[in-house]
Each structure stands twice: as C-alpha cells, then as structure tokens.
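Action item from last meeting closed. Structure (334 res):
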C-alpha cells in the first residue's frame, strides 16, 4: 500500500477495510471496517465518517459531503500510514491506532473536509437474504465461500429468473436483482442459506490447511462439525459467535468472538471472548473434544442466560476458572 503522500510504511497492513453504506434495505451496517462512510438521511448526500467498527460500534468523527468522500478517505488512510510507520507490528488496523492516539489525529487529517455532527439514524431491519418480491432474491453461503461451480449456478439463476444482475455483498449475501421465487430451487441445490437465523452464518473460518501454508487444521470441515454441535448457541447470537482459525493470525475474523478456536500443530486451543491466539481455557483439543465442549457451553449458556443476552455477553460474565471446571465436569460425565 502506498499512501497519498508517497510515504510507504515499513510494513504495510495485511488488510484495510473501507465501507460506503448508502443506507438502503440491503445495507452493510453489520460489516466491521477500518473506515466507514454511512449515508445520513435527508442530507442530500451527506455521510457520517466513522472509525474502526460496524455501523453501531464505529467511532464517529463528523460528517462530510458525498463529493468529499474520496478525499476524506485518502486523508484518513494517509494519516494511518504515518501513525503506524514506526510501529507496524503493534498498529495493524485503525482500531489499534485509535486505541493508541485517539481520534484527534484523524480529525486533524481530514481538516476542513469534515464538520461536527452527522447522525445516520437507524438502519432498517429488513432481511437481506430470502425472496424479497420485486427487489431481489438473497442467498448466503456457509463461511462466505463460493466456488466456481456455485458462481455459475448463481449466474444462471440471475439470467433465468431475474434481470441478470448479480451483486455480492461483504455480509456473505449474494443478491439476484429482481429475481422471482422460481430461483429458489436452483439456489438451495447450490447450498444457499435463506434463513437469517441459520447458525452457519454465525461462524467465521479461514481456508485452513490445504488452502494456506500457515494453517494446520482442516478448518472448513471442522467448522461444520462444530456448528452442528451447538446450533442453538450460534443461532442465539448476533455477529460472529464462533471463530475457527487455522493459525494465530486470525485472518477470517480480526476481533473477538464468543468462542474462538485457534489451530496449533493440527489441534485447537479454545478461548472464550477472545481473538485468535488469545489465552485459551482449553489447549490441544482435537475437533471431537472441541465439539463436546461447545455442546456443553451451549447448555451452560442456556442455563445462565439473562433476558436477551447474546452468547458473548453471557459467557463473558462468567468466571473463567469456574466455567472451565464446570464444562470439564459436564464433558466427563456425558
């Protein structure tokens, strides 16, 4: 990555995500990004400018005009490059820069292009996947993975049952524009998920061994096993509840998840409320042992849940040592 000023960092970040959300029904409010531009209703093209998060969690630094979005994005990325130049290992994403220096450097970088304020309101809760008559047919795929054959089916379905327009969203959804209900059988036969509560949509995983030289576990098949072991736990959550990483890099999900399994030498370390590589509650598990603990965690979640708590909140407030002993006892007695 080369910054606008021409300064090349000593080590470029592995990835930087930018979201431009126009605020329609097929919005990307749940997508976590380094920089967000969220349309503000009733402002004739104004956008909220926010750092490091989803629509709900990103830190707002003001608003800008639609015509200034490219210049603001370049200025903010340029400042990020400068901030991390001598600390590339520690400042990998914008969230790390905000934690270290706050938002002031970014506000100053954008200068007169942004102004105070900018409330984007709430994004509509209309489902993206499933058949939306007159608008689209939305389908998602487990772990966000599409192969060439599946893409061909999607293209054929878009031509036969819609207007030929196929849109891929960062939320693991594929939209077939103006497609009618007859597209459903083709999509389902290709493995499409049409239910927003499907537990496979609450799991994140990388390609693992065979797809990455750093991966040491068969993450894709293992994740299917793990999802099947605790479907209620996953369906109860919002966002990533289960993260299965082939190594400590955590490429599939950079943040914390309710449950994270990190591949190490062909086996898994399991942590609660952490990211890949976080200190685990259990070490050196094969996939069967990990699945049995996930099943026990599901039961404990249902026992301990208060109100509408999601799994991250419930499991996160339990004492780790108590939870580990409780789950070990339950697994041993199963």
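Sequence:
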């Amino acid at each position: 990555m080369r910054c606008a000023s021409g300064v090349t960092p000593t080590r470029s970040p592995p990835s930087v995500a930018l979201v431009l959300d126009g605020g329609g029904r097929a919005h990307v409010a749940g997508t976590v990004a380094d920089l967000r531009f969220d349309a503000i209703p009733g402002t004739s093209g104004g956008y909220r400018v926010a750092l490091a998060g989803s629509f709900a969690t990103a830190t707002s630094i003001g608003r800008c005009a639609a015509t200034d979005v490219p210049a603001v994005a370049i200025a903010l990325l340029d400042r990020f490059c400068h901030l991390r130049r001598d600390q590339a290992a520690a400042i990998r994403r914008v969230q790390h820069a905000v934690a270290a220096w706050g938002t002031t450097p970014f506000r100053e970088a954008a200068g007169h292009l942004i102004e105070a304020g900018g409330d984007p309101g709430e994004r509509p809760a209309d489902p993206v996947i499933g058949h939306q008559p007159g608008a689209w047919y939305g389908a998602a795929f487990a772990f966000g993975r599409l192969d060439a054959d599946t893409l061909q089916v999607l293209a054929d379905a878009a031509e036969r049952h819609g207007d030929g327009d196929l849109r891929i969203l960062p939320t693991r959804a594929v939209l077939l524009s103006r497609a009618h209900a007859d597209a459903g059988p083709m999509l389902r036969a290709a493995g499409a998920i049409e239910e927003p509560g499907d537990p496979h949509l609450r799991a994140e995983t990388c390609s693992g061994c065979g797809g990455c030289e750093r991966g040491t576990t068969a993450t894709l098949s293992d994740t299917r096993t793990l999802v099947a072991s605790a479907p209620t736990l996953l369906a109860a959550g919002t966002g990533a509840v289960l993260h299965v990483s082939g190594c400590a890099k955590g490429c599939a999900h950079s943040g914390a998840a309710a449950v994270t399994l990190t591949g190490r030498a062909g086996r898994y370390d399991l942590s609660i409320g952490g990211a890949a590589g976080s200190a685990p509650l259990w070490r050196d598990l094969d996939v069967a042992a990990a699945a049995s603990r996930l099943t026990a965690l599901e039961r404990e979640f249902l026992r301990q849940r208060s109100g509408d708590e999601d799994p991250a909140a419930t499991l996160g407030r339990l004492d780790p040592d108590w939870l580990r002993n409780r789950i070990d006892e339950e697994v041993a007695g199963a």
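Note appended to the action item: Residues 287-304 form the longest helix (18 residues).
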